[in-house]
Design goal:
Structural class: alpha+beta
Number of strands: 20
Shape: elongated
Radius of gyration: 26 Å
Strand content: 35-45%
Length: about 260
């Protein structure tokens, strides 16, 4: 009797779905956050079928559903709204592309969270201290800092306007396969493809990059109304699987009482 195993797999899958939905809703106001979504797969069992006979005279087999598997977690990279701020280094990407940052282990991470800052060494970093790539240095005496739509950073240094650096964006053939490292940082996988790098507003290969909106931040793309509906559906599915466990227990109890 596979009822209990099938129901148990459903309970585990719906629990994972509840955790992901809860995390999405908790990050509703996190700038640059991208909603996670679960990918389920059907678990199949191969059973002998007496009524299905192969040409050789042997009994055939049937693939019977035996529950659900937690296949993978995907990321929804749909763009969030760009909310205005009053900081010149709050940058939002209007379109496709990721900011590039150097992680503590020396690898490159990719993020849509554009709340940047200047560290003690004058380097442009994200809020976690990861250095923006390519490296951009901002002199301490810089005033009137501005970032253009093409990613060019200018400022007034000792009374003269200077170009201080150029922000580049990276794109992927299959961004949905990027691996989430936490803190809105993503790293490439085999399936995501090789990153293509270019200036905002340009085209590199088959990748067209978005433009930079200064003094604005991309908000979370979590839709609260949709998440609430999904949460109710998952809770109902969890309850149904829990009822299946209870029904299976009653059936086994009846079978045991008949045997006695």
């Amino acid at each position: 009797m596979r009822l209990l195993g099938t129901a148990a797999s459903g309970i585990r899958a719906q629990q994972d779905a509840l955790d992901i939905l809860g995390n999405n809703m908790a990050n509703l106001n996190t700038p640059g956050f991208k909603a996670n979504q679960m990918d389920f797969a059907e678990a199949l069992s191969t059973v002998e079928s007496a009524g299905n006979v192969n040409p050789g005279g042997t009994s055939g087999t049937l693939s019977v559903g035996s529950g659900v598997l937690y296949n993978a977690t995907g990321t929804d990279f749909q763009q969030g709204i760009l909310a205005p701020t009053n900081r010149p280094l709050d940058l939002g990407i209007d379109g496709t592309g990721f900011f590039q940052v150097k992680l503590p282990d020396g690898t490159t991470g990719y993020t849509r969270a554009g709340a940047l800052q200047v560290d003690g060494a004058g380097q442009l970093t994200d809020l976690q201290g990861n250095i923006v790539q390519p490296n951009i240095s901002i002199p301490s005496e810089t005033t009137d800092l501005a970032v253009a739509a093409n990613g060019e950073i200018t400022g007034t240094v000792k009374g003269s306007t200077q170009t201080l650096g150029q922000i580049s964006l990276a794109g992927f053939p299959n961004p949905e396969s990027l691996l989430n490292r936490g803190n809105n940082i993503f790293i490439p996988s085999v399936s995501s493809g090789t990153p293509q790098v270019g200036s905002p507003g340009t085209t590199s290969g088959n990748q067209t990059f978005g433009t930079i909106h200064a003094q604005s931040l991309e908000q979370s793309n979590v839709n609260l109304a949709t998440s609430m509906v999904d949460l109710i559906q998952v809770q109902r599915a969890y309850q149904l699987n829990a009822n299946m466990v209870s029904d299976g227990d009653q059936m086994w109890g009846l079978a045991n009482s008949i045997r006695r």
